[in-house]
Amino acid sequence: MRPARGHFALLRRGLLVLVRRQKKARLRGRHVCAIDGWVAAFSAFLDRRLEDQSSGGSGMPLLNSLSADEAGLVPPDILIFFHIPKAGGTTMEFVLAQSFPGDQHFNAYVGVPDSAISTASRALIAEKYNLLSAEEKRSIRCVFGGHMPMGIHTLFDRPTRYFTIVRHPVDRVISSFYFIKDKSYAPHYELIKNMTLEQYMDCRIGLDPFDHQVRLLSGCEELDGPWGVDGKPVPAAAVEDRHLQQAKRNIEEHFLTAAPLKAFSTLIVFLRRLYGWSLRSSLYEFQNATARRPQVADLPKATRRRIEDYNQHDMALYEWINVRFADQIRAFDGKISRDRRLFSVANSAFRQIGRVAPKHVRTALGFCDGDPRFER
Q1: Three-state secondary structure call for residue 62
Q2: Out of 29-38, 59-68, 358-367, which region has the weakest mean confidence (pLDDT)?
C-alpha cells in the first residue's frame, strides 16, 4: 500500500501544480493532453496493483473466480440500475455511463413523470426501447436513466438483474424536499416553493416523506398516485408491513445487490471487480447534491422524530439492506476492503483535482460538467 500511496501523492501534487497555474494562464491543448495521459498511465498502474492484491498474485480478479452458484454473483446479461431519488443515483449513472460506454447502455430516461413516487411510465420506456434496432438491443449490457418502475426487467428478453442504493430515510427526506422545492419543473413547484418541511409533510401533496423507498421497491401500484397539484393529498395507500416484505422479496429474487449510500465506494469496488471496469471509469465525485439544506443534526428533535415515524418501514428496509450488504461483502475475507482502501486513495486525489481544476481541464479529465445526461 505505501508505494501506491507515495506514487499517487506525487501524481496529485504534480497535477495540482499544473491545474493551479490555470489561474494565471490557460493551459494549452498539449498540456491538457499531458495531464490526461498522466492520469491514464497511473490509473493503469493502480488497476494492475488492485488486480494483484485481489488475486493474491494469481492474476485472476477475485469476483470473476467465484462459482456461478455462489450468492448469484454472476454478471447478468443486462444490469438494471434501480435509481431511488436522492440516494446517489446521478453519481452512479455517471459511473455506469463511463463503464458501459456507447451502445452498451440504454438510457431509459423519458422526462419528468406524473407519478408522485417519481417512477417513469413503463409504456414510454418500452416505446423508446423499441425504437432501437435488433443489433442495438443486443449490444445493451446496462440500463439506467431516471426512476424506472419495478418490473421493468420484463421488457427485455435476456437475463436481467437490478441493483440499487438506499439512503437513511431521515437524511433522504431532507435532501429530497430541499431539492424539489428549488426545481421549477417539479409538478407541484408553485405549491411548495415557499413551504417549510413541516408544512410539506402536513399537506401530503407529495409522497417522498412517507416510506418512499419501500413504495418504489415493493412495486405495489396502490402505493403511488398523481402529484397533488391541486393542493390535495396524493390519493395513495399507506405503506404496511406486507409492502415491506414484498420489497425484501423483490431484492432477494431480482437484485444482484442493494447497498446503503454510505457504502458507495464499496459498491463501486464490488461492481468493478465483478465486471472488470478500469479504475479510470470508476472514479467519481458526487453529482446533483442538494444545495442549501439543513443537516439531520440541525433539525429540531420533534421534526426528526416525525420523519422517523412517517418512515418506519423505510427505516426497517434500510437496516435490513445494511446488514445484507455487509454480509455479502464479508464473504470475500477482507479482499474487497483492501481494494476499497486503495480505490479511496485514488478517488480522493480525483476529487481534489476536480475541486481546483477549471472547466476545460475537468472536461478533459472526464468530469461530467455540461453533460446533458446528468442535468435533470
Answers
A1: coil
A2: 59-68
- Mean pLDDT in the chain? 82
Query: Distance between alpha carbon 371 and the CA centroid of its chain, in Å?
Result: 16
Is 351 a domain residue?
no
Left, alpha or beta for 28 (phi > 0: left; psi -120 to 50: alpha)? beta
Q: Please report the sign of the dihedral spanned by the C-alpha atoms of residue 249, residue 244, residue 270, residue 76.
A: positive
325 domain-assigned: yes
- φ/ψ of residue 268, rounded to 5: -60, -45
At residue 280, the pLDDT reads 80
What is the spatial distance between Cα 368 and Cα 361, in angstroms, rounded to a whole number?
A: 11
* pLDDT tens per residue across span 168-226: 999 999 999 999 998 888 888 889 999 999 999 999 999 999 999 999 999 999 999 98
Residue 88 has pLDDT above 60, yes or no: yes
Let me know if residue 205 belongs to a domain: yes
Give SS3 for 67: coil
Which CATH number belongs to the domain containing residue 320 in this structure?
A: 3.40.50.300
Task: Please give the Cα distance from 258 to 72 (Å, whole number).
Answer: 13
| Structural domain contains residue 23 | no
- What DSSP line would sit under 284-339, residue for residue? ----SPPPS---GGGS-HHHHHHHHHHTHHHHHHHHHHHHHHHHHHHTTTTHHHHH
Which pTM does this prediction carry? 0.82
Neighbours of 82 (CB within 10 A): 25
Neighbour order of strands in the sheet with 78-82: 105-107, 142-144, 78-82, 160-166, 255-260
The span from the CA of 207 to the CA of 118, in Å, is 9
* Percentage of the chain lying above the pLDDT 90 cut: 57
State the total domains in the chain. 1
Contact 243, 190 (CB under 8 A): no
Domain that includes residue 157, residue range: 63-331
Please give the C-alpha separations between residue 249 and each of 255, 281, 317, in angstroms, as whole numbers.
10, 32, 11
Please tell me the distance from the alpha carbon of residue 90 to that of residue 93, in angstroms, as a whole number. 5
Per-residue pLDDT tens over the stretch 250-309:
999 999 999 999 999 999 999 998 998 988 888 888 877 777 899 999 999 999 999 999
